[in-house]
Amino acid sequence: MQDFFSSHDNQQPHRSVESIVAEGYSFNATRSIQHGFSRFGKEAGIYVAFTLVYIALILVANAIPFVGDIANLLVSAPLIAGFICYGLRQRKDEFREFSTFFGGFSKANWASLVSQGILVNLCMLLAVAVVVLPFFWDPVSIFFGAAEQLSSMSQERAGEYLISLFNPSIIQASGLSVIVVVLVTTLFSLAPFFIVYRGYNAMEAMRASYLVVKAKYLSFLGLNFLLWLLLITGFLMCCVGILIALPVYYLSFAAVYEEITGD
């Protein structure tokens, strides 16, 4: 494994997005995940501690009455970037402490990370709406068409009527929504890394991620699939495994980003 880190740290020099797309690249998903586990294992305690803080802060942000969703948008992307900020310092063997995890809130990163998070969420919502809306069109149309009748029905009768509107295809639509979210997030999975490593703004980072990932999209889907399995497994382990899976997720993507870009 040490040989891998030596070759990884002595990779090709910094490459522009244009040269990456033009010249091509390759990466090994399994090796990248191994790299993520190894980097995590070297400082597991501090990664677990920050993951606990991350989960607590997200729960608090979501619990704020009326403004929870806005608060979540303002802190979630910078907090996630904490894994990237600390992992970068760790790879370079530079001074780092617990406050390094909050590098996403620095003046240089915060606005770009928040903007990028909002834009990616909007892309996901739009994609899901386009794909899923046809499944709900008929039930919604029938519901609004029968609104006056519902108001005159008894509560029991109205409940039975609403149940009758249920369409099994809605379950298919829900599964399709998950697939669409994974497809979209994969395209922009490298955007926060371009922000932290290169100081790109939100649009530059999303464009760079889109161009780079698109060139090897199936490979990135495979990597994302493996890492999502890791996250799900961690969640099923009484949620304790998520303390390992979440940092490893971003450290593995960091390994891929570094191998591709030379950063």
What does this structure look like?
The chain is an all-alpha fold and 263 residues long. The chain has one domain (17-135, 169-261). The protein is 79% helix and 0% strand. It has 13 helices and no strands. The longest helix has 36 residues, at 110-145. The protein is globular. The model is unreliable at 1-10 (pLDDT under 50).
What's the SSE blueprint?
Layout: H1 2-9, H2 17-23, H3 29-42, H4 44-63, H5 68-92, H6 110-145, H7 147-152, H8 155-164, H9 169-187, H10 191-198, H11 202-215, H12 217-236, H13 242-261
Helix pairs in contact: 3-13, 4-5, 4-13, 5-6, 5-10, 5-13, 6-9, 6-11, 9-12, 10-11, 12-13
Quick summary:
This protein is mainly alpha-helical and 263 residues long. Helix content is 79%, strand content 0%.
Number of strands: 0
Alpha carbon gyration radius: 22 Å
Range of helix content: over 70%
Main beta sheet, described? none
Q: Average pLDDT value?
A: 83
Q: How many helical stretches?
A: 13
Oligomeric nature of the chains: single chain
The helix-and-strand class reads mainly alpha
Number of domains: 1
Keywords:
263 residues; mainly alpha
